[in-house]
Amino acid sequence: MFFETLRLAIQAIISNTMRSFLTVLGVIIGVAAVISMVTVGQGSTDQVEANVASLGTNLLMISSGRGGGPNSAGGGGTSFKLKDVDAIEDQIAKIQSAAPSSSSQVQVIFGNNNYSSSIVGTDNRYFIVRDWDLSSGREFYESEIRSGTSVCLLGQTIREELFGSGNPLGETIRLKNASCKIIGVLEEKGASSFGNDQDNVILMPIKAFHRRIAGNQDVTMIYATVRDGISTDKAKTEIENLLRERRRITTDEEDDFDVRDMKQMATMMTSVTGVLTGLLSSVAAVSLLVGGIGIMNIMLVSVTERTREIGIRLAVGASEQQVLMQFLVEAVVLSIIGGVLGIVLGLLLAYAGSIWLSIPFSPSLSIILYAFLFSAVVGIVFGYFPARRAARLNPIDALRYQ
């Protein structure tokens, strides 16, 4: 019985192909919009998480200066010193490693090629806290770090700009008025969640940076990685207490430094993308409501057009339940067809969007299933009232209908 009802519903849909397509167009657009929005939103979230993870695991970023309120100690904040880095690593057991970082934007020259890049003065602890490996070459020797020897490691972007596919190891580049021998090349990191190219960087021993590039002994940033299984919040608190003590900040003064937890930043950024995705998906879901109303309108028209047919079926013994089921199945089939086409279109749009935005293509099976089930529910809800109207027609009045 059900299969016969299904056959009649499909036959009615095929006999009015154009009208059926226009009927389900609203459902197609609604489902496609929801699928594409959620998929692109999930891809954006995955990209943010990957970018934050590329900065390092369990990472705390400590910078000097914090805006400077009326009670702010030191106004704009005093830069750190190398002893501050060692104190954080030695005196706080929760910290696995801490690395200094001072940076400057310079024009890098090799032969006839030149390129603007960020040069960072640091030491070998930087590779630990940033979870950054080398693709070729070696790290700094301890003797090079202590003496401030002018050697450097290149990021992939600056390597490609200056050397193309050539091997830069052993070559010498110029940074401002200083020369620097290349001893290694970093693995590719890609863009960070803040939009900057992490591979457009040159690393050199921090003492060499102080002497040849900066002209001072300041450390502008400290990267600290927390031991596994230990709360970054507790480590952050201990760092703040230690630095307040070392920088002689009194209890009535604000910090003149800032400790940022990358996990918290990742959570904040993913929550923002999640809210935006939910908002856009909610707006897109309105199209499903519009599509459902379209199905109800067309089914009401179909009932009116087929009044005489309904009367004949009722007159020859069809029950109200059978007539109701026929029109309800027809509405559900229409809605499901729209849902399937909408899912395919939504995935295609999401894939195109992921390529255009350079984010991962992250389709969710649960969202696809929910969209399919929701399209079926739309057919049931909005198809019920026209079906009930058809089932309640008086057979005599229906047979008289012209």
Oligomeric state of this protein: single chain
Number of helices: 13
- Strand order, main sheet: write it out: 2-3-8-5-7-6
**Shape, principal axes of CA atoms:** elongated
Query: Which structural class best describes the helix and strand composition?
Result: alpha+beta
Helix fraction by DSSP (H/I, runs of at least 4) = 55-70%
Q: Could you state the order of secondary-structure elements as H and E?
A: HHEHEEHEHEHEEEHEHEHHHHH
How many discrete domains? Answer: 2
Please outline the major beta sheet: 6 strands, mixed, barrel
What share of residues are in beta strands?
Answer: 15-25%
Average pLDDT works out at 81
Number of strands: 10
The low-confidence parts are 67-76
Describe this structure in words.
The chain is an alpha+beta fold and 402 residues long. Helix content is 57%, strand content 17%. It folds into two domains: 2-51 and 267-400, no CATH class; 79-246, no CATH class. The protein contains 13 helices and ten strands. It has a six-stranded mixed β-barrel with strand order 2-3-8-5-7-6. 36% of the residues are buried.
Question: Can you give me a brief rundown of this structure?
Answer:
The protein has 402 residues and is an alpha+beta fold. It has 13 helices and ten strands.
Task: Provide the descriptors you would attach to this structure in a database record.
2 domains, 17% strand, 13 helices, six-stranded mixed beta barrel, single chain, alpha+beta, 10 strands, 402 residues
